Amino acid sequence: MRDPAVSIGLSNGGSDLEGILALQRENLRERVAPGEAASQGFVTVAHTQEVLARMHAQLPSIVAHRDGRLVGYALAMAQEARAELPLLVPMFELFAGLSFGGMPLSNFRYYVMGQVCVAAAERGSGLFDALYAEHRAVYGGRFELLVTEISEANLRSQRAHARVGFVELTRYADALDRWLVVALDLRK
Ligand SMILES: CC(C)(COP(=O)(O)OP(=O)(O)OC[C@H]1O[C@@H](n2cnc3c(N)ncnc32)[C@H](O)[C@@H]1OP(=O)(O)O)[C@@H](O)C(=O)NCCC(=O)NCCS
Hints:
By secondary structure, the chain is an alpha+beta fold. The chain has helices at residues 15-26, 34-40, 49-58, 81-84, 89-96, 127-139, 155-163; strands spanning 6-10, 62-66, 69-77, 99-100, 103-104, 110-118, 145-151, 167-173, 178-185. It has seven helices and nine strands, in the order E-H-H-H-E-E-H-H-E-E-E-H-E-H-E-E. It has a seven-stranded mixed sheet with strand order 1-2-3-6-7-9-8. The longest helix has 13 residues, at 127-139.
């Protein structure tokens, strides 16, 4: 059962962005020891506050707090973000060629979960599931699918995503890593 002292909701777009960046920094692949990265997971992309602010303006992210401190996040990214963030164009082009349940992804109203992180002390507590439950509660009426990417090396994250219902669409490699593209059906 999740700790009732942890609150989950939409990011405020201000101090929460700083909290996201602080937690992100602690979990960047290059900052985490290799053995820990294998067992605890890691994040790859370092955002700037400006980019997070633009993402927030389009689609606020879901964050979790304990005692006022940000302890988890699952970033939301609108398809329109590709116009703001040119580095995402290849990812959205790849998505455009994928299918879900035999239908082109482009036939669906979908958005992207840009990065998820749970503070080390909160892992295994149900917070991960709660972040996605909140995504579904907030965005499930507006979108049909939630799509994200996971490093092939991040088995913990893959396992957690499979548990909450994400299914694999494809795998691919880019200059950074090898990735699984996974999607969650928000209609059921
Ligand atoms: C990935 C992350 C968000 C998951 O949240 P969490 O609270 O740790 O997840 P949970 O403990 O609920 O679930 C982890 C699952 O992985 C499994 N697991 C744990 N260690 C594992 C390992 N070394 N290899 C494979 N699976 C592992 C757990 O058994 C559990 O699966 P189960 O419920 O089927 O038994 C969190 O660990 C995290 O923030 N890690 C650092 C940043 C990160 O990796 N972000 C994801 C980027 S895509």
